[in-house]
Amino acid sequence: MLLVCMNRASRLNGVFKDSGMLCINALAASQQHLSAIFAGKTDLDMMGRFAIAEWRDLVTGAPVLRDCIASFDCRIAEVTEVGTHSVFFCRVAEILIGPTQEGLIYFGREYHSVRSMHVSARHSDASRAAACA
Prior knowledge:
21% of the residues lie in helices and 41% in strands. It has four helices and eight strands. It has helices spanning 13-19, 32-38, 46-51, 125-132; strands spanning 2-7, 21-26, 55-57, 63-65, 70-82, 85-97, 103-107, 110-114.
């Protein structure tokens, strides 16, 4: 299950409730421009927004962004209204893992890229001792 919170005043809130499905696309750092576009920080209408990227569909038929880090194709199982937001409880129907690349997060009112860090399975005795201390 995934939780999605959406402002009840959003003009898309009812669209998601009526469709009963959604897809959560985890963006790569190279896709930062899409975040602003789909957050409504543009004059483009919805058709124009979707024309900027390449899409496909999975099990539910919700639009799945090509080449993102991961996509979670979901059916909305329940919606709860809490304060100013609707909380969508989403049952994951299918997961698509994209190419390995830097991820994108929004924190502290700024975008940041996130690199994968590979941690060795073998630890030195000193690191094991520090971890146990």
